[in-house]
Amino acid sequence: xxxxxxxxxxxxxxxxxxxxxxxxxxxxxxxxxxxxxxxxxxxxxxxxxxxxxxxxxxxxxxxxxxxxxxxxxxxxxxxxxxxxxxxxxxxxxxxxxxxxxxxxxxxxxxxxxxxxxxxxxxxxxxxxxxxxxxxxxxxxxxxxxxxxxxxxxxxxxxxxxxxxxxxxxxxxxxxxxxxxxxxxxxxxxxxxxxxxxxxxxxxxxxxxxxxxxxxxxxxxxxxxxxxxxxxxxxxxxxxxxxxxxxxxxxxxxxxxxxxxxxxxxxxxxxxxxxxxxxxxxxxxxxxxxxxxxxxxxxxxxxxxxxxxxxxxxxxxxxxxxxxxxxxxxxxxxxxxxxxxxxxxxxxxxxxxxxxxxxxxxxxxxxxxxxxxxxxxxxxxxxxxxxxxxxxxxxxxxxxxxxxxxxxxxxxxxxxxxxxxxxxxxxxxxxxx
Length: 432
Ligand code: NAD
Fold this sequence. Notes:
By secondary structure, the protein is of the alpha/beta class.
């Protein structure tokens, strides 16, 4: 099939590469000329494990190409996927300007019947809005479908190629048929294609993210309670996770959730709920708890050093919002760094891949270390904020020797408090 994917970010690139790998002819288009130039030069502008190999293979076999010419990509395509960003507006709502602009461009460029599919996370009613824009700008027949994306950064290729489910929200039988054919190889072993109406598909995406965020905020609040009452949240986590009605996944307390999806999608869902006068009390509390949680690690550090960090240096391991990505959008590490700087500390940071993105934000205001151990030289304390594999079993003797004071703040509960205390560290975790 001939496809166009508009927006070559974390979602669009993975989708474009994944679709082409199953034999489709795909053009990935973006307005960012620098990004497209890098892709055309064989560079992958984001860090996502396995994506470089998948892109190179399909570019080489002629099924995948990149372009700034949106109209050219759309002309002659059977399906167009909109995968542009839908960032948070000031009022919390999803900013749909890019989606709407792309819809208008598609309408002007289409040459015959076309199925326009939204992969971007968009509020309920967006499929109708896109239909209205298409009707306004073209006389050609079209169908619109909502096909929200559920991939996780860091494991995106696996999620995309072997999805838990594929949601196709549309009432149009031609769109259903084309998308059924497109996704058949992705759901071959287990038919996980779910057909819904567009509004339900749109809401499902927000419901899924809000549910996952709820689990995290729930555990983070319980972790704070566990500290107060002398319980160990890790033991509680294993206890409740063994119940199949609850399940063991997504129950890890930490320094708060970040990333390009949960924070903005929770806000956008709250906005929609408010606008139809059906407020979501649980989801509102999830967001408040997360804002508070992102400050917890910094508060522990300040308290340890007697309320001021003037003259102190703190080493921070892990900047990406989670391991295996270079994405720092809404990352808890950024909140911690701001907090440490405001309290007068010097910060030396390390991350396996996200340092260039963080440097672009802070410049010379913080230090960056070439290796995780270099970050510890002259540091008074170490905080780990992202649970990269590299940080899970460090050489603790080396850590202790390098730090001015043997104190660690474990924002992801990756280390064993008893082991660290036996080695002579002062250990602070979350909820234990
Ligand atoms: P991103 O910021 O990485 O990429 C968006 C791309 O769209 C950028 O390359 C940008 O240049 C391009 N773009 C913006 N305006 C454009 C326009 N008018 N025409 C053409 N291209 C344009 O975003 P992302 O993380 O890939 O997310 C895209 C969408 O998918 C969002 O709605 C997001 O909520 C959703 N989503 C993201 C993830 C994730 O893990 N990142 C997962 C599921 C869903």
